[in-house]
Structures are given as structure tokens and as C-alpha cells.
Design brief:
Number of domains: 1
Distance between the termini: 71 Å
């Protein structure tokens, strides 16, 4: 681990930079064929997602989040959970999403995480579990642990948005009202730790308390501002999306209970699932006969 003596000491996060570049190169290679060619809007959204990843994973935000300030840790997590996943998914052509989600293991996971209750539970466990004092201290002292936590946060962001995203094939989609209600619940349940930070009268994280001040903030003020940022930003983003979804449904259908139409990729995915179920039944051993009474 690189020793940092000042909050804004610069160093190059070469691994994360190369990882983002590799993701961009993979996107360009995967979208070269005519049937997977992205629109101009999709290219812009995916590029914004890559830029958000680069900002979150490199200097100065990653260093401040890891070693100096809970406020910047919260900002990093907000980018990774609320910004990166929807930008990357919305920027990916649907045929490519269909191919990426086709493997049976991936499809089985998606069928679980698109349901609101499992999604809320998983996001809450990850959001709270990765902010316990032990995990935060471990991430501050180990680059490997920090990378693992960051990847878990990104994945939980995809899970958070999965019940809302209409690009995922073969999934039972919530109505506009259901998606709006789901997002409002997600804005409240996983961020309850922010209330603890706001009202705490002493620093709760030793890894941030022993360092010098960042932009003049005491550790307690830093913690309180982190609580306000976590709560208000989550509410602002998720409630805005929720009300946008419901308003558009109201305008287009005259009610807030619209249903997305089925596409051929949805039908194709259901056929693939039925085929897998049939193959499993074919290879299952026959049940033993009941003993004679």
C-alpha cells in the first residue's frame, strides 16, 4: 500500500485505469457487428459510465475515500451504485445484453435479483455490511480488500437497478407504479446508517479519525456531512427516477399501471429456459417406486 502523507498526494491508479480502458475496448469490439451496433445515445451513455468509473476509482476520489474522509467514501459509493450501473446498461445494445445474460447461471441469478424483495435485501446487506467499522478499516489498510468491497458495491448497484431496467430480456417487469414504489423503498431501507452518522457525537471509524483534517473538516463534521449526503442524494436520485417513470406512464397510457410489451428476445429467452428444464427432466434419475403396502 502506498503511504500518503497529505489528502491530495497524487499517484497513478494504473490497474483501475487499465481496467476501465479494457472495458471500453471490449465494448467497441463487441459492438462492431451490424446487429449490435449502438446508437449515438448509447455510445454517449456508455462513455459516461466509463468516465464515472474512472472518477470513482482513481485520484483523488479513491485516495480520499480510502484513507481520509467518510464523506468522500460515500460520494464514491453513490457514483458506483447510482450512476455507473444504469449508464452502462442503458449504453449497451439490447442484442449484446441478450448474449451476456444468456448463460444459465447468469440467467438464474437475474431471475432472482429482479424481484423487489430479494433486491432490497441484497442491496441492504451489501450497503450496510461494507460500511461496518471492521470492513472499512480493512479496506483502508489493504488494496485487495478495498477492490473486493468496491466490486461488491458495483454489483449491488446493478442489483438495485435490475427491477427497473427494461433492457434485461425474459424478465417479468413491474408496472410503472411498482417500479416507482420499489425505488422509494430502496431509497429508505439500505441508507439507515446515515441517520446514525448524523446524530453520532464521536467518530465511529478509527481509520478516518486519526488523520489530519480534509478541507478543514473535523472527523465528526465529516461523518455528519457523509450522513446527509448519503440520505439526501439517494432520495433525490431514486425519487426523481421513480416519479419520472410514473409520470411518463400516466402521460402515455392514462394510468400509472402500464406494462412493457413483450419482445422477441423475451420469447426466445423463455424458450431457452423451457428447453433447459426439459433437458434437466430428461437426465434426472427416475423416482424409486413406492414399496408395496
Amino acid at each position: 500500500m502506498i503511504a500518503l502523507t497529505h489528502p491530495f498526494d497524487w499517484h497513478w491508479h494504473i490497474l483501475w485505469t487499465l481496467a476501465v480502458i479494457a472495458l471500453g475496448a471490449a465494448y467497441l469490439a463487441a459492438t462492431r457487428s451490424p446487429d449490435r451496433r449502438p446508437t449515438r445515445r448509447q455510445r454517449i451513455l456508455f462513455a459516461l459510465g466509463l468516465l464515472a468509473l474512472l472518477v470513482a476509482f482513481t485520484w483523488p476520489l479513491d485516495d480520499l475515500a480510502a484513507h481520509w474522509s467518510l464523506l468522500f467514501l460515500v460520494l464514491q459509493r453513490l457514483i458506483l451504485m447510482l450512476g455507473v450501473p444504469p449508464l452502462l446498461v442503458a449504453g449497451t445494445p439490447r442484442p449484446l445484453i441478450v448474449r451476456l445474460t444468456r448463460p444459465p447461471a447468469v440467467d438464474a441469478i437475474l431471475r432472482v435479483v429482479v424481484k423487489p424483495i430479494p433486491a432490497v435485501c441484497i442491496v441492504t446487506v451489501v450497503a450496510v455490511g461494507t460500511l461496518t467499522t471492521g470492513i472499512v478499516s480493512l479496506a483502508a489498510s489493504s488494496g485487495v480488500a478495498r477492490a473486493a468491497v468496491q466490486l461488491a458495491v458495483v454489483l449491488s448497484g446493478f442489483i438495485l437497478w435490475a427491477p427497473v431496467l427494461t433492457e434485461l430480456p425474459g424478465l417479468r417487469r413491474l408496472s410503472a407504479l411498482g417500479r416507482g414504489a420499489y425505488l422509494i423503498v430502496q431509497s429508505i431501507v439500505p441508507s439507515f446508517l446515515s441517520v446514525v452518522w448524523i446524530f453520532a457525537r464521536r467518530p465511529l471509524y478509527a481509520s478516518y479519525a486519526h488523520h489530519g483534517r480534509v478541507i478543514g473538516m473535523s472527523p465528526v463534521l465529516d461523518q455528519q456531512l457523509a450522513g446527509f449526503l448519503a440520505k439526501l442524494s439517494t432520495i433525490a436520485v431514486l425519487w426523481t427516477v421513480a416519479f419520472t417513470i410514473m409520470t411518463r406512464a400516466q402521460v402515455t397510457t392514462g394510468s400509472g399501471d402500464d406494462q412493457e410489451p413483450l419482445t422477441w428476445s423475451d420469447v426466445e429467452r423463455e424458450i431457452e429456459r423451457a428447453d433447459r428444464r426439459e433437458r434437466r427432466r430428461h437426465w434426472m434419475p427416475p423416482r424409486p417406486a413406492d414399496p408395496p403396502g
